[in-house]
Amino acid sequence: MTITSLDRWVFRAPVENAVRNAFGAMSNRPALFLRITASDGAFGWGEVFCNFPQVGAEHRARLVSSIFAPLVAGMPDDDPATVRAQLETRTRRMAIQCGEPGPFAQIIGAIDQALWDLGARRAGVPLWRHLARPGEGVARVRVYASGIGPEGVVELARKRWQDGYRAFKLKVGFDPQVDRANLVALRDTLGPETPIMIDANQAWHPSDARARIAALADLRPTWVEEPLAADETLSDWSALARDCALPLAAGENLRGETEFHAAIDAGYLRFVQPDVGKWGGMTGCLAVARHALAKGVEVCPHWLAGGIGLAHSMHLRAALGEGGFVEVDANPNPLREDVLRLEVVDGFAALDDASGLGFEPDLAPLQEFLINV
What we know:
By secondary structure, the protein is an alpha/beta fold. The chain has 2 domains: 3-124 and 363-371, Enolase-like, N-terminal domain (Enolase-like, domain 1, 2-Layer Sandwich); 130-350, Enolase-like C-terminal domain (TIM Barrel, Alpha-Beta Barrel). The chain has 12 helices and 14 strands. Strands 4, 5, 6, 7, 8, 9, 10, 11, 12 and 13 form a 10-stranded mixed sheet that branches. Strands 3-2-1-14 form a 4-stranded antiparallel sheet, with helices on both faces. The longest helix is centred in the first third of the chain and has 23 residues, at 101-123. The protein is globular and about 60 Å long. It starts with a strand and ends with a strand.
């Protein structure tokens, strides 16, 4: 069978409070959903990363329609890795010419997601089982509530605890006193044994990262995520890992197996966080994940957007077996909540045994957020 169409929908939902991190804020929640349909009527869904910049969803949607929809028409629908490689090859020079390798990689990643979903739906099995090697895979994943802070940290954490979450991630990289006060408040509220991660979103320079981490180390965060810019040298990352007492995590802003393997093989990461919507889709992120696990590095997929990409992230982690965490945004977002009905029990979320992602995205409740592009 071959691909007959690539359709896309752009959504933008208002939020009462902007979602902030160390380098910027989202004053609304965007999403770009893709659906691939094959000549036999089979279909699959994917989601493109488009949180930043805030005009990113509309721009990427135009790239989908003008470049990628014509390219994928007629391609085989049963070989995501080959399609991904062909798209990378055929758009490589264009991405260089316009200086936009990131958006191109994000769209290709979502196309890859959709093809894996299509294949699992056609096979009549859940996506995690379709991805897993024989004897691997589980039907549930451990999750954590992410995107907490810098304001209202205790209130939001308590709400998510009531929803069943038992691990949490705090945004840091702001004023040092704010960072420490927030982490102290969470530790006092959640208790000494609750996993609490911290995420600096690339905020610190190699010259001050050690001191910033040391000021929080006594509160025992599970990991320190992106304390440095993703493109700082391997030697800077390795020196920080050697000098600080806390495990480091990163990966959402790495692009390409070469970059991932270099970071993993350098040994400075204890947790690697590939993002299926930023690079690689399921094919690339699964390969990175297996390489990481072989090197003793835990895999915790990154995701902070809509429900389709979150579902893919959960299936990716489930295909690898027990271990790790999947990130779930703690902040309100109808583009996640109205697409993927997630029930968390004592820190775990179960995956449906239905084929593919386990659900058919219902876009009807999202029509008020639809953007015509």
